[in-house]
Amino acid sequence: MATPVPVRIAALPRGGRALLLPSAHGRSLGPGAEAATGVAGRRRASPAAKGKSPAKVEAGSPLGNTRKKGRAKAETQDNASVERCGAGGLEKNNLEEQVEAVCDNDAADMDWEEGQVERNEYSHELGESFTVEFNDDVPSSTTKKTVRRATAEEKELAELVHKVHLLCLIARGRVVDKTCNDPLIQASILSLLPNHLLWNVADVRNLKAVNLRNLVSWFHRTFCVTAQSTHRGSFVSNLGFAIQDRIGTAEEVCALSVALFRALNLTARFVTNLDVAGLRPDTKVMGTLNQDASRLCTRSLPHSSPAADGNVVSSPALLKDNTQDSVSMNQRRGGLGKSKQTSACKRSLSKTLSSIKADNESSCISASSQLPSTSSNAEVPKRKGDVEFELQLEMALSATAAENQNNNQANHMSQSIGSLQDSTPPKKKLRQNTEATSSSSAVWSRSAGAPLYWAEVYCSGQASTGRWVHVDVVNDLLDAECKVEASSAVCKKPLRYVVAFAGNGAKDVTRRYCLQWYRIAQGRVNPEWWENVLAPLKQMELTATNNSEDMELQTRALTEPLPTSQQAYKDHHLYALEKWLHKNQILHPKGPVLGFCKGHPVYPRSCVQTLQSRHGWLREGLQIRENELPAKVVTRPKRTFNAQSVQSSANEDALKPTLELYGEWQLEPLQLPHAVDGIVPKNERGQVDVWSEKCLPPGTVHLRLPRLFQVAKRLGIDYAPAMVGFDYRSGRCLPVFDGIVVCTEFKHAILEAYAEGEEQRRAEERKQEEAQALSRWYQLLCSIVTRQRLKDSYKTPSHGLGHEEALGNDNIQKNTLSSQRSERKPISSKLQTDHEHEHVHEYPEEDQSFDEETFVRTKRCPCGFSIQVEEL
DNA sequence: CTGATATAGCCAACTTTGGGTAAC
DNA sequence: CGTTACCCTTTGTTGGCTATATCA
């Protein structure tokens, strides 16, 4: 029944043998899987093995492929396991002979795809200890994971996602900003503010950060922050409910603070660290878009439907996870005992859900219950007595409406799903969730959540001319911009794009919060694109706030402290170490030295010059000045594209394996011979090399149109074919031509003539097509007529035929340009006998027509067959 | 945990002007 | 016999950059 399949026998050092299905990536059945009862293995080429021949363990060669260290190591281990499993000391038998015969047959080019061994057929010959072993995916700590790097396509996709996500987040920021201007929201939040806090901020013109202290503390005490919110239809509605319930997401609470500041007539803006999907693809997560996908998903759809939640609830794995989440959360908050923790693991569904509820509620309670949570008592331990915690739990549960609970439940569940989908380990994720909800600590540490939303208030009384002051009501922080970067880094939400929103506009203020730009530069999108996106928004922001801080941000950008690690100097935007220069870079001038890092002098980045070869500069329309020596000489790859150069490679190596590079300071504009008297200066091949438009001889133009050279030739204008590059196919390089180069003065004449010529050519083409169509119609109709005539001649001979024939011919002849239609008339009666007719080779003159415009002669056989001949 | 270093995989750059055969 | 059109074949190597692993 089983198809004989080529299999390989590995001769093992101790004489043991194992049957190996040829596979680069088989699967281990484990040491215990003995005498497999029919094994089917399918190999799928993994990306790592893509394009490589399957790693086969050759007979007598334990290490099939020792080219790379890592693989050799892995295979050594594989063979050890093979040995372990296969040391049965089997006698060579028929099967093996058969198998080896197949192997010897080689097999090297065989497609080793699928294997199947049926026990029924062979087991009696092999004995019970025969083991089938697949040499891959052995679960072992030392097994090297296949490292797959992202391809260019994936990178492009990730960048696109990043950009789109950025745009979405900006749009979101604008929505929030706009809502902060809503009069009703402003009035509502203002109405909550106690009177005594009002006059602290009355003097807007001389406002200082200190004046905001009480306001911020009050706000922090009054509103508690929750991880998830209920969608109420619009952000305005959400804020309305947040005001009513004194509870909202960090974003909502922060937005409310901005609304309050604006209601108080302060200049305030909504600031957010855009939590955007990564610019680079995440190679750790295979098969999915990237790890941010789930985050994207949860952010855009934070409220999964109850039905979806129901599905999830039915999954035991998720349940367990939730249980653990809630347990450790309880432990964290309330200090539950160990026994309680273990018992909690076995809780029923309802208890799990209630504990989740408790978590949600307790987070609010803990935030709002620690009312006087100023910096003075920030160090108060979070652990409280169990009793107190239980009390709070009770209060929370009873105080919350059932409906609300359900919502929270659902939200928390969807959040949990998100956390499971996320590549972050559950434990870590849990911590993040906890952090997001806990807001009692004013000391930046891991326990404080990553700051994603805050406000900036312009304090005119601060500094000499006033400045923007960082105000974070979520974390009860005032003027603490220096702490943002560290806390973001700790919470794995590094600063990337800190954007301030005001007046429906936006502005990148990352510089204010980021002291180590080199750390984030890699994660940011192409600055040009980003600036283009923000340019119109920046103007709107400026109009609204009337405060330009560009100088301040610029100063920050230029006065970054010297990094202490050498790595940081790699592509640092301000500083450079000589060791990190690229192959085509040089320091010119080599100085000044700004400092030292581990003994290496640090130079300003502005001293780094990028060099190019003579040809490279030529493309840019520049040439090297006379008598300039190469700034740097680097080795160039050997030319190995044909046999001749390989033969003479020894000489070539000695001669010129180097590439001479020049810097910008050694250049002058390209000086090419001018076009004189309508003659295009050409190279020795009679062409012009157009590496770029800058390489054109002065006074000439490059016209990239097909068939243009014919026009130039016809008009007698001097031209040269434009060689634009090379095509390297099948190991050969072929010049690629595109259009022609002519003197500028002939440009219009040629283009006009070309347009005319093209028009004519198209007309001719059309005419030809029409003629052909007519001819085909004629043939078709003739054959119909003939057929009909034949038919009739057998049924009712010579009856009613004349009319049809006349009609058919007439129609055609009206439309043809034939000048001799009348002569073709009586279609010979010979036709009637023409079953095996051969077309007349020498067509009679009277059966030919000639079109003087197209030079097409149409010859017709009396049977209706015609042939067209173009006369030249 | 951080930084230095080694390693491996992806990818871009580099190369820089056909030859044999059949039909006409 | 000279000219022309068409087909053939689908590279191959090197080094830079970068992510990851490993070690101090």
TrEMBL record:
Localization, UniProt:
Nucleus
InterPro entries for this protein: BHD_2, DNA_repair_Rad4, Papain-like_cys_pep_sf, Rad4/PNGase_transGLS-fold, Rad4_beta-hairpin_dom1, Rad4_beta-hairpin_dom3, Rad4_BHD3_sf, Transglutaminase-like_sf
Q: Does the keyword DNA damage apply?
A: yes
What the entry lists under SMART domains is as follows:
BHD_1, BHD_2, BHD_3
Give the record's GO biological process terms: mismatch repair; nucleotide-excision repair
Low complexity composition-biased segments: 46-56
Residues forming the Rad4 beta-hairpin domain are 558-609, 611-673, 680-754
Q: Which domain of life is it from?
A: Eukaryota
GO CC term (a single one): XPC complex
Where is this protein primarily located? nucleus
Gene Ontology molecular function: any one = damaged DNA binding
Keyword DNA repair (UniProt): yes
Which UniProt key words apply to this protein? DNA damage, DNA repair, Nucleus
- Which residues fall in a compositionally biased region of kind Basic and acidic residues? 821-843
Residue ranges for the region (Disordered) are: 22-85, 300-344, 410-441, 794-851
**Pfam families from the UniProt entry:** BHD_1, BHD_2, BHD_3, Rad4
Indicate, by first and last residue, each region the UniProt record lists as having compositional bias (Polar residues): 412-424, 810-820
Family to which the UniProt record says this protein belongs: Belongs to the XPC family.
Q: What is this protein called?
A: DNA repair protein RAD4
Q: Which organism is it from?
A: Panicum miliaceum (Proso millet)
